[in-house]
Predict the structure.
Amino acid sequence: MPVNHLRDLNNIFIGHATNKEAGTGCTVIVCPEGATGGVDVRGGAPATRETDLLRPEETVQILNAVILSGGSAYGLAASVGVAEELERRGMGLDVGVGVVPIVSGACLFDLTCGKADVRPTAEDGVNAVRAAFNEREQPLERGCVGVGTGCTVGKLAGMERAMKSGIGEAVENTGKLTVGALSAVNAAGNVVDPHTLQPIAGLLSPDKTQIQDEEQALIDQGDNLVMPLERTNTTISCVVTNAKLTKPQATKVAQMAADGYAHAICPTHTSNDGDTIFVMSTGDVQAPIDLVGTMAMRAIQGAIVDAVKQATSSYGLIAAQDL
């Protein structure tokens, strides 16, 4: 049977912690038995945890959880709560005197929504893990929830002409192989339909009635270009697959998946974006690496589109479904 949602994958648990009032939150993807991990970091100013550990030459072979968090670098505190809650559940690398959960993560900048002085905490990380296990049988909420709570896109002209975004999901299947993705979209650029290249959310016109071509707007400014909100834009994602991958293969899948950003965000990988993609390989399905990478790319671009389509207008910002 095709897998339609990431929560349907064996040994994968996903949960959110959301602070609507403060406009922030976090989302955790847990693999209790440990996944093979990989990562691709293309951002110029990433806020990350345990990405070096995922490099192919490093000795730790399993990844217990990935946490995607708001709060800019402050949001890294949520990963501590994730690790502590997994330890209480006996999940992690056995070091003889206990277990050490291997938790990687990345944060995005959402301090312009809600309350800038309230960010995800260790308690939020604990709550996200508990939600992952307690809500396994429920549909995964997307849009302005968890790490997607304070996400925005289209910020070339500042927040007054930006649009609301969130977290999205997409899953690709072929035969027994499943590759899915979660993406929290907080990009400087516009989100476009990768098939038609028509904008879905992004830089609003001055009267806020239509979406402008942000790439062209950037070029038109020429030498007078002033990028607002420097180092405050990031799309962070996690690809999950039941393919059997080594660490080098998982790293390559993360690199290939990054093409999905280029297909769905325009412009992307700017100096103002801290883009990061994690990969978690949980299964034993044998598949060519290029097939897995291509499906990951398609899942990423689908999750990006889903993120803006599921978002709702909030914090004074218009969402695509209300434009």
Summary: The chain is about 20% helix and 30% strand.
